[in-house]
Amino acid sequence: MSRKTAEQMTWHLNYCNENEKMFHLACGEAWKHFDSTHLEFASEPRNVRLGLCTDGFTPFGHCASPYSRWPVFVSVYNLPPTM
Description:
It contains four helices and two strands. By secondary structure, it is an alpha+beta fold. A two-stranded antiparallel sheet has the order 1-2.
């Protein structure tokens, strides 16, 4: 990991504590609860936190096809919102 990427992965340590407005998940209560529950994971701020979102659907209704399409979106929560 490059130095620049490592710095961006840890931006949430300092910025969210200084700003009172919640503009990113790192500033929210759920992030803080996760950190207090999983102390070993939270001890290294560069650990990657991922969000997984999917919405399953069959594009043509009830088909004879044995499969459906599932779009999957993965987001890296560590990175700053400007990226």
